[in-house]
Input
Amino acid sequence: MEKGEPEAYSDQNFAGMLTRAGAKLDVFGVYGLLYGLLAAPELIMPSEYIKIIFGDEDGFSSKEEATTAISSLLFVLDALAKWKPEKEPLYYPDITYPETKDGLKARANDSLSLINGVVSGLDLGKTAESDFTVSGIKAMDDLAKLQAMLTAFVESFDKDQSEPEFDYAGALELMEKMEGMVAGSL
Output
């Protein structure tokens, strides 16, 4: 995210705040939840989704940290609400991954977290199948297929421990295609 970004905001910092606060969702889950809420037919008050993200426990070390985390959350919500999918690429958390097998596995898990967040946001916003257009139903079917593909992709990393030569470039290409499919379904 770049346009109107506050100086202190970065997805990496926001991810750290979520972790330190003991949030139930990671930064990808938060993005997904917010995408789902924005697409849902019912307006959900922040007090409801803040509980989903942070739970009932106050895990912040200070009032300042809590204020910064909530400000960051609202910044992300505002940016996603202004997103123009027909003109702009999907806003995805800007996280850097190591160029390793573990980095690809983390990236795939993050994409799964984003998809799961979208579904949670749609559920929270009381989205029914009748709320979707034909293309919306196809997009949800595509997301379900992508969940299965990403899950298999992650599981393949655990099974291939004995493989001496890992095709990082090939796996990265596959991961980028799947991310593009996720973006196309939102």
Notes: The chain has a mean pLDDT of 83. The chain is about 65% helix and 0% strand. The domain at 11-185 is CATH 1.20.120.740 (Four Helix Bundle (Hemerythrin (Met), subunit A)).
